[in-house]
Amino acid sequence: MTALVELRGVERVYPAVRPVTALRPTNLAVRSGDWLAITGRSGSGKSTLLQILGLLDRPTSGAYLLDGADVAGLSDRERTRLRASRIGFVFQAFHLMPHRSALDNVTVALMYNRCPRRLRAARAAEALDRVGLGGRVGAMPNTLSGGERQRVAVARALSIRPDLLLADEPTGNLDSATAEEVLTLFARLHAEGQTVLMVTHDPQIAARAARRVQVVDGTVREVRPDA
Ligand SMILES: Nc1ncnc2c1ncn2[C@@H]1O[C@H](COP(=O)(O)OP(=O)(O)OP(=O)(O)O)[C@@H](O)[C@H]1O
Ligand SMILES: [Mg+2]
Prior knowledge:
The protein has helices at residues 46-53, 76-86, 102-112, 117-130, 146-158, 176-191, 203-206; strands spanning 5-14, 20-30, 35-39, 61-66, 69-70, 87-91, 164-168, 196-199, 211-216, 219-223. It is α/β, with parallel strands linked by helices and 227 residues long. The chain has one domain (32-61, 75-223): P-loop containing nucleotide triphosphate hydrolases (Rossmann fold, 3-Layer(aba) Sandwich), CATH 3.40.50.300. A hairpin with a 2-residue loop joins strand 9 (211-216) and strand 10. The chain is globular and about 45 Å long. The protein binds adenosine-5'-triphosphate (ATP) and magnesium ion.
């Protein structure tokens, strides 16, 4: 089966007087339906890997294949369009607009996604319903708990019906009980068929995922399930 995303020999070097090799040549295949945790110490290259997987950043060398097709030839504009239609992001710090309702916060993703205007509100409400916030569509972020804010961010990512849901330390700003809620949500989305990739430095959180890869000084290696 063709991988949803495949990295072939992908390397990322940040240019500087002394260039930083954040990612050493990496092969990684993400299949549709995977639930994968990316672990590693601070500075090991986890976010770099996630940004490349999410088409937010380009490799210095190597190939990125989406559905088996190399994206190297695409313009920035085409990459942005591909990202907006196929990839959902969740960040540690939620990144919600503070003066807009939960519904409006989700609707934004659908604007970039070029979803027809008349469908946006219903699609946003459906995504909020999916994360258990169907009763809070009008709530402002400052009236929501941390876990609820993160669920709004997950709804925003899900609203575009992404092929790939990427989360960078999604539980990093949450207490352990609330982190558990978000993990349970990811587990359910995975069970419903959603492909989920999550970065975490916490091995216990990573253990919840079906598949784990570890990044050590820019080198990516698969962790066996029994390890
Ligand atoms: N824009 C940049 N320019 C130069 N170096 C960078 C840049 N972004 C990251 N780096 C370096 O690349 C390496 C990997 O960084 P990355 O952010 O991927 O680590 P991380 O594993 O996500 O760390 P953390 O757990 O702290 O978030 C680090 O040495 C970092 O200093
Ligand atoms: Mg990081």
